[in-house]
Design goal:
Helix content is about 50%, strand content about 10%. It is of the alpha+beta class and about 550 residues long. It has a 5-stranded mixed beta sheet with strand order 5-4-1-2-8, with no helix packed on it. It has a 3-stranded antiparallel beta sheet with strand order 3-7-6, with no helix packed on it. A two-stranded antiparallel sheet has the order 9-10.
Length: about 550
């Protein structure tokens, strides 16, 4: 994370090399300077290497160099040590490697020269070399709202949108497996008092309310992640192809950081909970959900860094937005941060004045008012974001201006509050795109798909309220009692929609690779087949071992 402190060096030697054109000598002199965690490194032939340029004994900062690592025979070149970093928690089909360099010489022109180049005698020139495609200065592009060039935002958006989409897809796979297995698995007598060995009908475990709630909770989260990822992808493509500015792009970029962080953690937690919901069979690799859990949580929850750090990027943006609102600069608030506009009034109390009204009186008001019910929950999530952002700003302001801490110290002192603020905003962002997607369905379908997705939207909102994070002091005991009743009502109403909702993710059996989630329901045949094919049950000639020697000895 300390890019300025990179210890890899590229030292220029003037008039060296076969053509006396000058060479760079690349070194990773310490363990800390090695390249580590680079995806694809082990199987690559070339790398774009970031290193500290040393010119005439003077450090010139971090630059990028093209380094050839392997020759025509694919063996590592002299001075190059490249390898895989070893077995990981999951996703072990991805080659992730390390690179160490000892006096590796590369041509002068292997410095990436779009903005600068170095002459054969060692002069640093701030322009592309003569004759290159970039030799003519490019026309300056208009800056986007928020002060940064469009490419500044687009580059990171691509990665974050892709990881968010992966989170939604992985959680969706777990939902399919758990839902199908919960519908197929029977356990517990329907009527214990009158059951006999000849009359012992058992329940589908999906009929147990807690099991049903777990499946519906994570299914609603999978839909929410997929809807917001689809929206982000569309906005990214539109911004990329447009020559005009986009004032909402800074907010989208900042929200995407928190969304990638929270979305991946949400998916990892969901996959693990759904794996446990599959009982003992969820422990088997043949279940499909056990390897999914291992493969997802390792690389995705930590890609781009710890999820808390990414969330704090979103928090910084939100605090700056509060400052704009308090200063009265409400027209510059992009996207969903418009909810902070009331803070421009000194008499506005976010906790008292920001709460949506009127509060629903019964389940009919809370659940079954269609767009009106969805809008209420959206305003409720907006309310939490408004309060969280204001409290975080006030706490940071107190640390810096009253306690006289530095800005960095103040941020660390209030990091927990800043983190929960970012998560509140991300959840509001997710719910807003969920609601938009459902609103876009024609009203002519109000009794079909739209009604089912309406229920799932409300389930997503309610399951978050039940978690309690950020809601303390915002909702009364009466309102929380209504939320509990609403969840029970929704579980019953959505019981017969579970398989349809999860089947609509449209994963083939090949993609799921799960004995528990087979579309034909032949779970136990698949489990038995996987057991028979286990390497422990096959002898050295590849034949099935009918009975282990231990039992043969006992029989004799």
């Amino acid at each position: 994370s300390n890019v300025r402190g990179l210890q890899t060096t590229a030292t220029f030697v003037p008039h060296a090399g076969p053509r006396q054109d000058g060479e760079w000598v690349m070194n990773t002199p310490t363990l800390q300077s090695m390249k580590w965690w680079s995806t694809g490194m082990y199987s690559s032939t070339h790398a774009a290497v970031y290193a500290q340029m040393v010119l005439n004994g003077k450090p010139m900062g971090v630059h990028v160099f093209l380094v050839q690592m392997r020759g025509p025979d694919f063996k590592a070149l002299p001075g190059i040590e490249v390898g895989d970093i070893g077995a990981k928690l999951g996703d072990n089909d991805a080659t992730i490697g390390y690179l160490r360099m000892r006096n590796v010489r590369i041509p002068r022109r292997h410095l990436m020269e779009r903005r600068q180049h170095v002459s054969p005698d060692g002069r640093y020139i701030k322009s592309p070399p003569p004759g290159s495609m970039d030799a003519k200065p490019a026309k300056k592009k208009k800056k986007q709202g928020g002060g940064g060039g469009k490419s500044h935002y687009i580059t990171m958006l691509k990665t974050r949108v892709a990881l968010t989409n992966t989170a939604g897809a992985s959680l969706a796979k777990a939902c399919v497996i758990a839902a199908r297995y919960s519908a197929l698995r029977h356990q517990g007598f329907k009527n214990t008092a009158h059951s006999t060995r000849f009359n012992s009908a058992e329940n589908q475990i999906l009929d147990y309310q807690v099991q049903l709630y777990r499946v519906l909770k994570w299914t609603s989260c999978a839909y929410a992640i997929k809807f917001v990822a689809r929206w982000l992808l569309q906005r990214r493509k539109a911004a990329e192809s447009s020559s005009e500015g986009d004032k909402d792009l800074p907010e989208i970029h900042a929200s995407a950081a928190g969304l990638k962080a929270y979305g991946c953690v949400l998916a990892a937690d969901g996959i693990e909970d759904l794996r446990r919901a599959c009982g003992g069979h969820g422990y088997l690799m043949s279940s499909g959900i056990a390897p999914l859990e291992a493969d997802f949580k390792g690389p995705n929850t930590t890609a781009e860094g710890d999820y808390v750090i990414l969330s704090l990027q979103t928090a910084r943006f939100l605090v700056r937005s509060v400052e704009k609102a308090i200063a009265g600069d409400v027209d510059s608030l992009p996207g969903l941060t418009q909810c902070l506009a009331p803070l421009s009034s000194r008499s506005f109390d976010p906790v008292v004045d920001g709460k949506p009204s009127p509060s629903p009186r019964n389940l009919e008001d809370l659940l079954w008012r269609g767009a009106e019910s969805r809008e209420y929950f959206l305003r409720l999530f907006q309310y939490r974001t408004l309060v969280s952002c204001y409290k975080a700003h006030q706490a940071l302001h107190h640390s810096v201006n009253v306690q006289k801490l530095s800005v960095d110290e103040g941020r660390n002192r209030n990091a927990r509050l800043l983190y929960t603020t970012a998560v509140s905003h991300v959840k509001y962002f997710m719910l807003s795109k969920f609601v938009e997607s459902v609103n876009a369905i024609p009203d002519t379908d109000s009794e079909g798909c739209k009604l089912v997705l309406h229920k799932l939207t409300i389930m997503f909102a309610l399951q978050d309220i039940l978690s309690g994070e950020g809601w303390v002091g915002l909702l009364s005991a009466r309102e929380m009692t209504l939320v509990d009743a609403a969840v029970s009502e929704l579980c019953s109403s959505l019981r017969n929609e579970v398989i349809g909702l999860t089947d609509s993710f449209d994963f083939s059996d090949t993609v799921l690779n799960s004995a528990l989630g087979r579309s034909d329901g032949r779970v136990y045949e698949a489990l038995y087949k996987a057991a028979k094919e286990s390497a422990l049950n096959v002898d050295k000639d590849g034949k099935w071992v009918e009975s282990p020697p231990m039992f043969q000895a006992v029989e004799k």
